[in-house]
Design a protein that fits this description.
- There is one protein chain.
- The chain has 267 residues and is an alpha+beta fold.
- Strands 3-4-2-1-12-11 form a six-stranded mixed β-sheet.
- Helix 1 packs across helix 2.
- The protein is globular.
- The model has no long low-confidence stretch (mean pLDDT 94).
Length: 267
């Protein structure tokens, strides 16, 4: 039987826009959905945001689990941006699968980085989970293409013999050069499951927009040759707080996907 892996991606919006009030919304949805792997962007380093979120999430999972049921404890892996942003912001992966390796790649532009964890699957095989946040400037698609090329080369070098999944806020629309380049080797889980990309993932009503601009910027991508099958994919963190229609988890919607992995090859 294949193993069904649940993955998620969310841009945290660092500590801006009512972070203490947003934190419970994020924890609640993650604890309810229990993704095995989560990719986070705009993680605020000075408050140990990844560690704070992980601690709250583990306590929430423990309180929701039936007595005697082990749901797996989350661990986090932070990768700060390169200088001069390294003391301020980074990206992070949360995993409730055993992690055997963690490394990172300098994307050479805008202090951007990517990170990889290799996790051990219940069947004994391995999976490489990549997380990134590409450069954000609207007219910087050429730089994002360079970053996407570096990412694909890194994935090819590291993950030739294992399943690989890439998530992130790519700051690129589906019709951009960077996405076309990535989709020359990878497929979008949401697009496979739903026949198209989401209408948009940014912005949510958390922030007031001065221009009527919205776009899909967030993705879950995987190799079509890896034997993985997308069972379903959906836009996550869609709902405001019950008592405040202006309070959302972030200025981005997240994504989640269930992916069936055939009995993995030994690494």
């Amino acid at each position: 039987m294949p193993f069904v892996l649940r993955v998620a991606v969310l841009n945290l919006r660092h500590n801006a826009d009512r972070w203490p009030e947003r934190l419970p919304l994020i924890v609640e949805e993650l604890a309810r959905e229990r993704p095995h792997l989560v990719g986070l962007q705009e993680v605020f380093v000075p408050i140990d945001q990844a560690g704070l979120l992980t601690g709250h999430l583990n306590r929430a999972c423990a309180s929701l689990a039936p007595t005697g049921v082990q749901c797996g404890t989350y661990t986090f892996y932070l990768q700060s941006k390169t200088w001069p942003e390294n003391l301020k912001e980074g990206i992070a992966i949360l995993s409730r699968l055993p992690v055997e390796e963690h490394d990172w790649l300098d994307l050479r532009g805008g202090s951007r980085v990517a990170q990889r964890v290799r996790v051990r699957l219940p069947g004994g095989g391995a999976l490489d989970f990549y997380n990134t946040h590409l450069h954000h400037e609207l007219l910087a698609d050429a730089l994002r293409c360079e970053q996407a090329t570096r990412l694909l080369e890194w994935m090819k070098a590291c993950s030739a013999d294992v399943h690989a999944i890439l998530v992130g806020d790519l700051n690129a629309r589906p019709d951009s050069g960077a996405l076309r380049l990535l989709k020359s080797s990878l497929v979008s889980a949401y697009e496979v499951a739903n026949g198209r990309e989401p209408e948009y993932t940014f912005p949510t009503p958390l922030v007031k927009q001065t221009l009527p601009w919205r776009a899909t910027l967030d993705y879950i991508l995987l190799s079509p040759a890896s034997g993985a099958r997308v069972l379903r994919a959906w836009r996550a963190f869609e709902h405001p707080a019950a008592d405040d229609p202006t309070l959302y988890a972030s200025d981005h919607y997240g994504l989640m996907a269930d992916i069936a992995l055939e009995e993995p090859r030994a690494s």
